[in-house]
Amino acid sequence: MPGLISPSIRSSLPPLPFIFPSRFPLKREVAFAPQMVLEACRMAEEIRSHPPMWCERKWDGSQVSVADFAIQYVCTRKLAVSFPGDVILSEEDGRTLEQQFPPKARKAVVDVIRRHDKRFHPKHLEAWIEKGRSPLPSSRYWTSDPIDVTAEFIKGGQYSVNLALSEDGGIKIGVIGCPNMKLPHSPPSNRGELLVAVQGYGAWSCGLTEDDQFHRLHVSDRHSLSQALWALPLRDKSPRFTDQDYHLVRGCLEVFGKVVGGVRRAVSPVRYAWVAAGLADFFINFRLDCINSPFYVHDHAAGVLLVQEAGGTVTTLRRRPLDFRTPPWMGELFGLLVSNSPLENPSLHDEVLSRFRRVAWDVFPVEKRRELYK
């Protein structure tokens, strides 16, 4: 079949623009992670350009596609080979593939993987997918989301590939690939961005198709709410909303909508990228009553480090640091706030948090108000 590998996404990246000290312990990991996400983006675009993509609904109502399973297999196997002692945590599970995907869809997953792994044998497929669901506690682990926002991937909209390394409760490396996002500093003909953050070494971006260097990312200097750009999710409405969800969402739209400088809409991983690149200034992500699901590490780890290394701040809605020590969940998290506020002057961060708490206080029943402060 001609054109199996998308000709638009490059096969290699320019060197990262910093030099590690001789005893820096994560040189191999920093070299591996961006190249792995680059390959995953190429796989995703290959699959998207050769339908059918075979999509099914998971238990939580979200969609899963051939790309999710194929990329998770390749990423998990390469991580296991390169770092055999590490724990790997990914989103998808082998039982969904085995029990919910029809034979033709499973064959499509096998065909894609065979083009990227000559040693692949189909009988090991579910086992490798399950290896990415390891529940073992560890002070060091990799976490990945092969396709973040599969529904948008299917439609040709914004989606991402996420990969991060956590050690001792913190995120050391975070990489996000966004094949349909364009940053202002990219070459005019470039399509898509690869964003890399290394703890202590900043946040950087490079074009997925055309770019001969990495560019340093910085949050904006808009620290007044009247100037700030608010990054909203793509949709504010859900048929599953409870009354509390509805009033909380509408309350935030009314309170912030009257005072912010502007609004932009995107899916979650792109909102992290926008704040890091100065294209937006804050966003709030809170758990809805209608969705009985915790915050997962694989959805947020890479983006959190990206914003922090670009000079921004990420905390819980109780103004505490995020906790990555209990994967795959981010502790007992009600929600988080991402902003361009520097740690030494978090004025915008604190103002947004204060206004959100006032909205939630009016919406929450008395027994739930402690969630705002405990």
Describe this structure in words.
The chain is α+β, with helices and mostly antiparallel strands. The chain folds into 2 domains: 190 residues, Fructose-1,6-Bisphosphatase, subunit A, domain 1 (Fructose-1,6-Bisphosphatase, Chain A, domain 1, 2-Layer Sandwich), CATH 3.30.540; 144 residues, D-Maltodextrin-Binding Protein, domain 2. The protein has 10 helices and 14 strands. A hairpin with a 4-residue loop joins strand 7 and strand 8. The longest helix has 22 residues. The relative contact order is 0.12.
What is the gist of this entry?
The chain starts with 26 loop residues before the first helix and ends in an 11-residue tail after the last helix. It is 34% helix and 18% strand.
SSE topology:
Blueprint: H1 27-48, E1 56-57, E2 63-64, H2 66-82, E3 87-90, H3 94-100, H4 103-114, H5 125-131, E4 140-148, H6 150-155, E5 160-167, E6 170-178, E7 193-198, E8 203-207, E9 215-216, E10 229-232, H7 243-257, E11 262-265, H8 268-277, E12 282-286, H9 297-309, E13 313-316, E14 335-339, H10 347-363
Parallel strand pairs: 3-4, 10-11
Antiparallel strand pairs: 1-2, 4-5, 5-6, 6-7, 7-8, 8-9, 12-14, 13-14
